[in-house]
Amino acid sequence: MLEVDAADIDKLWVRGGFPRSFLSSTDDRSMEWRRNFIATYLERDIPQFGSRIPAEALRRFWTMLAHNQTQMLNAANLASGLGVDGKTVASYLDLLVDLLLVRRLPAWHQNAGKRMVKSPKVYVRDSGIAHALLRIPDKEALLGHPVAGQTWESFVIETLISVAPEGTEAHYYRTSNRYGNRSYSDTSQRKALGD
Questions:
Q1: Rg of the chain over CA atoms, in angstroms?
Q2: pLDDT digits (tens, 9 = 90+) for 54-87
Q3: Are 75 and 89 in contact (CB under 8 A)?
Q4: What are the strands, taking DSSP E only, across the chain?
Q5: What is the pTM of this model?
Q6: Which end of the chain has fewer CB atoms at under 10 Å, N or C?
Q7: Which of 66, 69, 181 is nearest to 121 (CA)?
Q8: How far apart are CA 5 and CA 141, in angstroms?
């Protein structure tokens, strides 16, 4: 985000940070490049790393992560949706994390009470790739899509992590009651905050 003009931030969010996608002359050409990138990665590049995961299964998994990014990882739901077991989901996720395509953001739970959430959140690291996986072609379609806030959050998280000092470890913080270290006894306060 810090490498483009302020007027181009929305374009960067929609198209992502790969230069050929971002610099494409039209949204359609950008989308075509991202779809080709995804297909090439799944069908040619990942198998060269020794992975024997079927390309279509990995595509479905990656797309499911794009739909569920910024949420806490629920491996059981993902496994059920794919028709595989939890170990298979873990191996798919490890592969995408190792290839820097997905970020697994751990929960902060050091020296905290028992009521801390400990599941990681998962993000597709490039917002343009997430939009291609979800078949969102442009800003207008994105703004009307339920994942707009989630991909914006992912975009911001990646930007913040990229400018953090070397050695910084990123985490998210959430208690089991969803409100960090605050407690709300007044029902109207909880409702105002979206509970």
A1: 18
A2: 899 999 999 999 999 999 999 999 999 999 999 9
A3: yes
A4: 102-105, 121-124
A5: 0.84
A6: C
A7: 69
A8: 23
Taken as a whole, the chain contains a residue count of 195
> Of the candidates 122, 82, 84, which has an alpha carbon nearest to the alpha carbon of residue 103?
122
Return the structure tokens found at 84.
């595989």
Strand, coil or helix: 116: strand
Residue 151, strand partner residues: none
Residue 100 three-state SS: coil
Instruction: Please give the structure tokens belonging to residue 93.
Output: 């996720």
Phi/psi at 142 (nearest 5 deg)?
Answer: -65, -45
For residue 34, the enclosing domain spans: 6-192
SS3 68: helix
Which tokens is 112 given? Answer: 């905290």
Count of domains in the chain?
A: 1
For residue 64, give the nearest of 87, 38, 85, 93 by alpha carbon.
93
Residue 1, domain member (yes or no) = no
Amino acid identity at 18: F
